[in-house]
Amino acid sequence: MSRPRPSYAGFLKNNLREYGMLLSLVAIMAFFQVMTDGTLMQPLNLTNLILQNSYIVIMALGMLLVIVAGHIDLSVGSVVGFVGALAAVLMVQHEWHWLPASLACLVCGGVIGAAQGWFVAFMKIPSFIVTLAGMLVFKGLSLALLQGQSVGPFPEEFQLLSSGFIPDVLEGESLRLTSLVIGLALAAALVWLKLRERMQQTAHGMEGEPFAFFIGKNLVFVAIIVLFAYLLASYKGLPNVLIVMALLMALFDFVTRRTVIGRRLYALGGNEKAARLSGIKTDRLSFWAFVNMGVLAALAGMVFAARLNTATPKAGLGFELDVIAACFIGGASASGGVGKVLGAVIGAFIMGVMNNGMSILGIGIDYQQVIKGLVLLAAVFVDVYNKKKG
Prior knowledge:
The protein has 390 residues and is mostly helical. It has 16 helices and no strands. The two termini are 30 Å apart.
């Protein structure tokens, strides 16, 4: 007896959030492209958009795992500022080489995450309280490190982390051909991986998305990747930090979807008691989620400091709000157990495009905050409404 073909309407209804996020990003970009008379998608502005949101995307990947595990981390903005200050003190004042200084900063981020994770996972103190305390502590420590002053500039090699671009070894005349080729290769790899995944699902008798949706969604992704690669190649090429982001996205997507740790993390967020009774070491899992968050916050701190080329006492102010908002807008559930890497990345870029577009239109920072707050509230409302309806 053959399986009934999946209903298009039923599938769209069950996966409305996933498709809705992608369509929302495309719609918001189209809206601001029209409203800014084409400024939004100009290669220079597109490059700035990536550089401005790189540290938010990097932290959103770590925050997603923390939220999926049923916790929250309010300290990431302060950790960004503290690690940037530490990098400046090591490289500028003590003249460390940028490489050991960067490794020391990443280790410091891991230690910070471990300290907070220990209180949350083993001492059972709510993550909201622990990370709120961390936010105050590391904000104070960054002020103490910098003694209330900005410190810079950084070594040129370190600046390349955020301001450098992939060298054009193919030496194109009007286009950075190396960047364009990398973009085309990425699009081809995405199509191959998705086709392979679908064939495996079909071979095992698993019901996947309708073929029309599968083709449509992947065509949109390929079109976006190729368009972005072409536009960036027509300016300075692919930024170094974009490559870092892409590698991290691929890694975290693999971990969350293909590994035992990923499945256990979702089980922990869905029902901690049931996960613990099934043999999952929930304490250890929560602990490592915070360690991971600390390392990524440290990396984001270095990216931000390299972009500014100086460490300032106010660095990282309010970043935690943008990062948490990106995860919730991207489909993560406030109650844990739900969320995807792609959703968090899309959420981060929705926030970034809105910030960039509103700034180009001359909308004041006051109204920008109001609009972003309403968008976040709407995203969480849709999540709660769908749960109640289900």
